[in-house]
């Protein structure tokens, strides 16, 4: 290629890259001020209280046991302090 074609091409590429950079910088960053944090420990404690009162007998025994197992598993995950996660 000749220098007459290479220099204008490089200038056009540089102008395009700079314009993309300026466009990306001019966009405002998203703020998450309206997001409320989830409190998993409180939810798990409330479910645990309900399950403690609930008696797992009768025709829905399997569902009750599955819920209790899930609560226990979530409690283990959120209270595990070993850092193995």
Estimated structural class:
mainly alpha
Number of DSSP strand runs:
0
What's the rounded overall pLDDT mean?
A: 76
How many helical elements?
3
Distance from N terminus to C terminus (CA atoms, Å) equals 57 Å
Helix content: 55-70%
Could you give the order of the helices and strands? HHH
**Parts with pLDDT < 50 across at least 5 consecutive residues:** none
Q: Tell me about the largest β-sheet.
A: none
- Rounded to the nearest angstrom, the radius of gyration is 29 Å
Q: What distinguishing features does this structure have?
A:
67% helix
Describe what this molecule looks like in 3D.
This protein has one domain. The protein is mainly α and 85 residues long. Helix 2 runs antiparallel to helix 3 (61-79). Helices cover 67% and strands 0% of the residues. It has helices at 3-26, 40-53, 61-79.
SSE blueprint and pairings:
Elements: H1 3-26, H2 40-53, H3 61-79
Helix pairs in contact: 2-3
Summarize the structure.
The chain has 85 residues and is an all-alpha fold. 67% of the residues lie in helices and 0% in strands.
């Amino acid at each position: 290629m000749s220098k007459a074609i290479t220099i204008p091409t490089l200038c056009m590429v540089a102008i395009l890259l700079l314009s993309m950079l300026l466009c990306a910088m001019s966009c405002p960053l998203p703020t998450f001020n309206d997001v409320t944090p989830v409190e998993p420990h409180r939810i798990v404690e409330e479910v645990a209280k309900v399950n403690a009162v609930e008696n797992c007998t009768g025709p829905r025994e399997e569902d009750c046991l599955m819920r209790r197992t899930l609560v226990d598993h979530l409690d283990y995950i959120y209270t595990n302090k070993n850092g193995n996660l």
